[in-house]
Specification:
This protein is an alpha+beta fold. It has two domains: about 80 residues; about 70 residues, Beta-lactamase Inhibitory Protein, Chain:B, domain 1 (2-Layer Sandwich), CATH 3.30.1450. The chain has four helices and four strands. A four-stranded antiparallel beta sheet has the order 1-2-3-4, with no helix packed on it. Helix 1 packs parallel to helix 4. The chain is elongated and about 90 Å long.
Amino acid sequence: MKSKWLPIAALSAFIGALLIAPAAAVAADDLKVAQLEQDVHELQRQVQALSRQLEMQRVQPALPGVPPKTPSMAAAIDVTPTWVDAAKWQKLMPGMSELEVVSLLGPPTSLRTNGAQKILLYALEIGASGFLSGNVTLSERAVVSIQKPALQ
């Protein structure tokens, strides 16, 4: 004899799964939004730096035979990533959410997965033979280990 409650239990489990799925999607969307906001802020800084450089060129009088002095493009645009600041790495703690890490350090330069763990990698090339790198390991979207940046 079949129980009439079996289909009801299956239906309620299905409805429960449908209610949980949007919450996971919202968390993933929050991370993407935070990364896009970081990208927008970086682009705004670059536009401001280029605008200042352009204004300096307009204001500077042109003298015949004397090339105008302009700051180099590297000096005009600060392209140092936010994660390079050691004080920000000091604020990281196990248990922090992925969104908190990205809000503090900015978007990672790359991501890796190792089973159930996600590793946020932060790296910056320094010269021709070295680079600065650090990483944050997450399990279930929470920080489990932190490797502060070091020269490699």
